Amino acid sequence: MQTYKAPLRDVRFCVHEVLDFVSHYRALESELGAEEVDAVVQAVATFAEDVLVPLNQGGDEEGAHFEAGQVRSPQGFADAYEEYVEAGWPRLGNPAEYGGEAAPYSLKLCVSEFMQAANHAWCMYALLNDGAIKTLLGFAGAELLERFVPRLISGEWMGTMCLTEPHCGSDLSQVRCRAEPRADGSYSISGTKIFISSGEQDFSENIVHLVLARLPGAASGTRGISLFAVPKRVPDASGALGAVNSVRCLSIEDKMGLKASATCVMAFEGAQGWLVGEPGRGLNAMFVFINKSRLGTAQQAQAHAEGAFQTSLAYAQQRLAGRALDAAEDVRPAALIVHPDIRRMLLTQKAIAEGGRAFVLYCAKWVDLADSPNAHVRARAERRLALLTPIAKGALSEWATEATDLGIQILGGHGYMKEWGLEQRVRDVRITRIYEGTTGIQGMDLLGRKLLGPLREEFDGFTDEILALAARAERQRSLRGLSAGLVGGVNLWREITDVVAEQNRSDSASVGAAAVDYLMLAGYVCVGYVLALSALVAQERLDAGDAESAFYRAKIQTTQFYFDKMLPRIHTHAQSIRNGSASLMSMDEASFGLGV
């Protein structure tokens, strides 16, 4: 029963009409034009629909296999990866000097949505390399680059991120993994890492683990952590594979979702590794991987919202139940889609999927600029991404859980059954609210480390950009309500930022208490911004007499629904923030268990 079609028209609307990727690429001195972009979009869409969708449900039912330290992926998964590599897709968006196909990263992120929606678990093997590549390119020396990067870019080898340990999750100050210097300039890495996606797999002949560990005498806390590249098999200087390294997969996790993806417990037992970057600066280097992964997680979530919407819409259009509001008593039952509450749920899914897509792709343009050789451009882009990435990851993962759950509600009892695929989406998407930092961690990063710290000026500039769009929309009579809503949202976001800053002067718990509410409020305003931009472009197309009038009217109507029914949620979040931390912190720990 599982189906999925890549939303090509909406992707092209975002890429060409709203965000104008082609002009953006021209400014980046890329030769990609509209035809080349569309060709890549279509080709990856076909791969996702024809190859990955048919493997998704069976992969979930079969799961990943583990025996004697070896992982075997579900039937067809490794073959699909071979096809992916043969098509050259891992090379897209990577440097030509290491064998890549030069293209802005935003194009790769654009088409990744199709694969994530089609088969999230397969992507947990296949799409992790880019973060490893970017980290190595940013911090590794020439010898390591030549040894590892070309084969990561080709897809022959794959990379992992090894942070979490059994005694510590997100608090990396507790990392105990050790790195001892060797006489040859390499290091001996020892320790256990858990929750390692694709730590062992049957897709590639080698795996390059990026591992956080401590050197002898290193400072405590995060300042004493260094980063090391630790291959499964040790290559020589030319890249030819040598002996198997002292790295073992001890087990794979039995998970709620993503059952086809191997989440591994890895033991490094004096494994040979090489320092990446400077000693004690490992977390700085790893944040290149983490930040890329956070935006990727936002897209994973958004892709599930799109998939859930497609299934829900198809069912609501076909299933007959109840009478239309204006129907005579003797008429036959109407399709579900005529009922207001079904429309509420469908439009919520549609707004999350389409607004989330536009927001992720807006952020993707800034990722391109963060790769600029111009230091000023690069620094500005890094500031903007530091502001937006936690919002995208946190808000979209929360909303995608809502969107997939609404899919089950629309289908009723059928949604609760496995055959429609929504039950799997609910299980699979749930992890997006946890990995790469929970929603609470994203909120504290956004508020405590950034907006109450060095990024207030960037925040002011971004909200000025939103207000400038609101002024453009106000000049369109049909969009004046959206303009007013956007101005109100920005003003509230600014006001509540000042409220938390004031609370923080006298209440050390205020940031933690406000973090999630604050992030969600920010998310609603940000997605309102890109949806309002979309509606403005759509209205301009209608005014020009464009033949696709139904598509553009639907875009405006979706935005209007969002502003009428979803954006008002910001007032609840704002009131919760104003209420402070007292009710959270007043109960003593012993009282939590009273009544048990």
Write the layout of secondary structure elements.
Layout lengths: L7 H11 L2 H7 L6 H29 L2 E3 L2 E3 L4 H10 L18 H14 L1 H7 L2 H11 L2 H13 L2 E6 L15 E4 L5 E11 L8 E9 L10 E7 L1 E3 L5 E4 L2 E6 L10 E14 L5 H37 L21 H31 L4 H37 L1 H4 L5 H8 L9 H13 L4 H19 L5 H25 L5 H34 L5 H18 L2 H10 L3 H4 L11
Parallel strand pairs: 3-6
Antiparallel strand pairs: 1-2, 4-5, 5-11, 6-7, 7-11, 8-9, 10-11
Helix pairs in contact: 1-10, 3-5, 5-6, 5-9, 5-10, 7-8, 7-9, 9-10, 9-11, 10-11, 10-17, 10-18, 11-13, 11-14, 11-17, 14-17, 15-16, 15-17, 16-17, 16-19, 17-18, 17-19
Overview of the structural elements:
The chain has 596 residues and is an alpha+beta fold. Among the domains are: 285-447, Butyryl-CoA Dehydrogenase, subunit A, domain 3 (Up-down Bundle), CATH 1.20.140.10; 453-581. It contains 20 helices and 11 strands. The protein has helices spanning 8-18, 21-27, 34-62, 77-86, 105-118, 120-126, 129-139, 142-154, 282-318, 340-370, 375-411, 413-416, 422-429, 439-451, 456-474, 480-504, 510-543, 549-566, 569-578, 582-585; strands spanning 65-67, 70-72, 157-162, 178-181, 187-197, 206-214, 225-231, 233-235, 241-244, 247-252, 263-276. The two termini are 44 Å apart.
